[in-house]
Every structure is written in C-alpha cells, then in structure tokens.
Amino acid sequence: MKKNRLFMMMLVTGVSVLLTACSMFDNATDKGVAEKTKVVTDLAGRQVHVPLEAKRIITTAPGHGGAFMTMCAILNKDVENYMVGWDNRLAADNKDMYNHYIKSIPKLKDLPDVGSVFRESFNVEKVIELAPDLCIFSIEEKAAIDASAAAQLDKAKIPYIYIQLVDEKTENQEKSARLIGEVLNKQEKTEEIIKNSIEKRKEVERRVAKINEQKKEKPKVYFECVSRGVDEYGWTYTNEVQWGLMTYMAGGDNISEGKYEKYGKMDSETLLRANPDHIFLAGSYWPKVPSALKMGYESTQADVLQQIEAYKERKGWNELKAVQNGNVHAIYLSMGCELFDFASLEFIAKTIYPEEFADMEPEKDLQEYFASYLPFELEGVWMVK
How many domains does the chain contain in total? Predict the structure, then answer.
C-alpha cells in the first residue's frame, strides 16, 4: 500500500511538473508571437494579429477596390518584392492597365494567380501553398471569403484583413490607406500620400457644402458603366456606392438614387422621364465587347469622342437635355475605388459646377499623383468633358 501511495504521489507530481512546463512553453510561445506581431483593426471591425512588417502579401481586386494600387503608391517599384500572389483581375478587366504595368514591373507577369473571389474561382489551397504572411481583401469579398476560405486560412494561421475603397467614402479611403501603410510598416510615406489625396477630396466636399447652403437646384446626373456596349444599358449606381456616391459628393442630383439597393440597370423610359442635365459614361477596355467605350492607356481623345457620339444615338437620347447641350462626358472606370479618385471627384464637380471649381485641374492633379508616387507613367485618356 505504501508503495502504491508513493507511486501515486510521484505520478501526480510528474503530471504537475509537465503541465507547468507546458504552460510555461505556451506562455513563451504566446509572448514570442506577440513580439513578432501587432494588432490592427480592419475595415470590417476585426482585430487581427499581423506581422510587424508584412513582406509576403497576397492581394485581390487590383483596379477594383483592392490594395494593389495603394501598395504601389507606398512602395513604388519595390512592390514586386512584397507580393507573392494576386487574383490578376487586371488582365481580364483592365487589359490596358495590365499591359502597361508589366512594362514597368515585369515580375508582375509571373506573379501566381490565386483566382478571383468575384468569379468564384478563388483558390484557397493555392494561397496556403504560397505561404503569405498576410492577405488583403476588399470588404466586398467578405461574404464569399467567410463562406469558402476563412476557416482554411484560420487553420493555416494566415492572417487576412479587409479594406474598403469601393464605397468611395472619404473616411474609409483614409482608414484603408492608413491600414495598408501600417501593415507595411510604412506609416510616414502613407501619411504623406493621405495628406495629398484625401485633402483634395475634402476640399471638393467643403465647396459643395457651400453650394448646398446657397440652396441651388442641383444638376441632375446619370452615371453608367458602359461595359455592355451601346446596345445595352450597363450598371448605374445609387448614392450608397462608388460613382453614385461620388456624384452626390460632387453636388449632383443622382437620378439613380432610390431606384436600386446599390446597383441596377436603367431603362430608357425612366431615363427619358428624369431627363438629366449631365451624363457620365464610365469606360474601360473590354476586348470582348467591341462597342463598349474604350478608355485608359490605349485610347486617344479622338477615338473617345467618336465613341461618345455612338452612345448619343441611343433611342430617345436626342430628347435629353444632356445630349442637346453637349453634356455627355466620359471617365475611366478604374478611376473609381482608388486613392487617386480625388481626381474623379474634382472632374465631376468641375463639370457640373464649372464656375465654383474653375481653379481645379483634375487631369493635372492626377498626373502629379502618378509622377510623385506610382511606378507607372500616366498615358492615354482618363477624362473627357
């Protein structure tokens, strides 16, 4: 019996020592992790442990509200040394941008493609294989990530954060840029860029507030993404998102507001009844839709003006004030949901309020932003009044 009691005491003591050692190891591990990471709050309100300086990053939605262009502004050509994968939507949706950017940064051509969340081709296994220390997603992708990839990313201990640029709110632009700068550990450079771009947005907002105080009747504005070509109406936007919100911020009366939740397709009868004072056509480069308004790096002013004429020939458009008064304008779709969107806001505001914004030069401001921060030259046609 004494031997049994002695054995039991030794066993309990041994287990206690083992548990204490394990606890000490866990605490040391937690401490080690804490020393190598920091906690950030993303645009979904999540608190996430990220590396002190993320250097192996996977990004999604380049040119569509993703982190790529902001990373390019912060890192310039060194961005190629921070990215280990992306969804390469540029090659599909902004072919001119892709062709232009790989000339400046050839490594982008060989960057692994992890698939698109929006096109339901996101390859979480490929992401895990690439072993990034951080993934940066657009908040518009959150529901899909939660449903299809979050559990696997969490299990693989790959941190991920969400940014929010698509909604076009100045506050979220600033928060998103600051978050990207923080995970890159490039806060000083980021603050310089924020001061440059966000202040321009705020100046437009200040002037529009004064216009609203004077209770001027707002010009009616119709905005359309013309990705489907001349014969079919494309997406239009409410004040909740992107071009619709920018129209509102620029002091326009967005005729699409209240007709859809966020996006929708205008019908000819509704458009004719609204009879907008200005029409903005958002173009890009969609090779599969030849009649779609082609803008960007591979466009010329003459070509864009000629294409605008085709849209003015849509059924019933000759009855619209915007057409009769020569107020059908064009803007590059990729000037939405990026830090340099201040130039879009300036352009819309100056177009509908030429006197109040006479001193603003959106094209010059955009050129200066590219020259100061981005590793790519600005070429082609981005705005046409």
Answer: 2
Q: Is 1 contained in some domain?
A: no
Instruction: For residue 37, give both structure tokens.
Output: 């990471």
Please report, for the domain that includes residue 242, its CATH number. 3.40.50.1980
Domain of 119, in residue numbers: 37-186
Whether residues 224 and 356 fall in one domain: yes
β-sheet bridge partners, residue 384: 330
Residue 345 lies in a domain: yes
pLDDT reading at 9 higher than 60: no
pLDDT at site 94? 83
Domain assignment present for residue 20? The answer is no
How many Cβ atoms from other residues are within 10 Å of residue 95's Cβ?
Answer: 17
Residue 25 is assigned to a structural domain of this protein:
no
Q: How many residues does the chain have?
A: 385
More confident residue, 21 or 204: 204
Those residues with Cβ within 8 angstroms of residue 83's Cβ, 6 or more apart along the chain or in another chain: 57, 58, 59, 71, 111
Band of pLDDT at residue 35, cut at 50, 70 and 90? low
Tokens representing 51 are 């590396």
